[in-house]
Write a structure and sequence with these properties.
Length: 229
């Protein structure tokens, strides 16, 4: 993603940038880890004419594309999508998404969609309720990062066309069709606040909607855990 932002002035069309190995990967809330060679580390950078709110919807679009790409190499029934930006394989985290954008006016100047997929290696010694797993380690096909990127880029373009033609509601419905724990009790943590409720839906703005003891609650950002904690 650093390289993508460095090159943004020279980019005239959507561009995928791949790192064969990363020693300072980053995710939400500044989490850092190493990514060995053999896994997928890519960033798509492009310049959609849209607001920051519309740009953020690409997180769901990217998750849908990842689900489609991974299902080429493993049974799609063992893949689920975890709000807001993870893909789970047999309950473990196999892929993650991170969005960055820049712009001072109503519309963004550029958007980068960072994607990491554990194709071969699953990071060890990670304190996470959704322990990392790899595609190969869970019985999926062994695929080179370059080949997986071709599959992913094609799926992303398909879902981008859906967004353009049918709007975010179609992207949202596609995402919900593969959502983990939909209709079940989950826990959202926002700072010191713990919110428990039934995962009802994702609304038109991409917020997680929980049915709590006090009624529906729309959540824009939180760490999510399954069950009642």
């Amino acid at each position: 993603m650093n390289e993508a932002s460095r090159r943004v002035g020279d980019i005239t069309a959507p561009t995928w940038i791949m790192a064969r190995q990363q020693t300072a990967s980053r995710g939400r809330r500044g989490k850092v880890w190493e990514t060995p060679e053999g896994n997928l580390n890519v960033t798509l950078i492009f310049k959609p004419l849209c607001t920051p709110q519309i740009a953020a919807q690409r997180s769901f679009l990217a998750a849908n594309a990842l689900h489609e790409a991974l299902s080429v190499y493993i049974d799609r029934r063992v893949l689920t999508l975890k709000w807001p930006n993870d893909v789970l394989l047999n309950g473990g985290k196999v892929a993650g998404i991170l969005l960055e954008s820049s712009g001072k006016e109503a519309f963004i100047d550029w958007l980068s969609v960072g994607i990491g997929v554990n194709l071969i290696h699953a990071p060890g010694n990670v304190d996470n309720p959704f322990p990392p797993v790899s595609l190969a380690g869970e019985g999926g096909g062994r695929v080179a990062p370059e080949d997986f990127l071709v599959t992913l880029a094609d799926a992303f373009a398909t879902h981008e066309a859906k967004l353009e033609r049918m709007g975010f509601d179609r992207i949202r419905r596609d995402w919900l069709a593969n959502a983990a724990k939909l209709g079940e009790t989950i826990t959202a943590i926002q700072g010191a606040e713990v919110i428990q409720g039934i995962f009802d839906t994702v609304d038109k703005d991409g917020n997680l909607v929980l049915i709590t003891a006090k009624g529906p609650r729309a959540i824009a950002a939180a760490d999510i855990f399954f069950g009642e904690g």
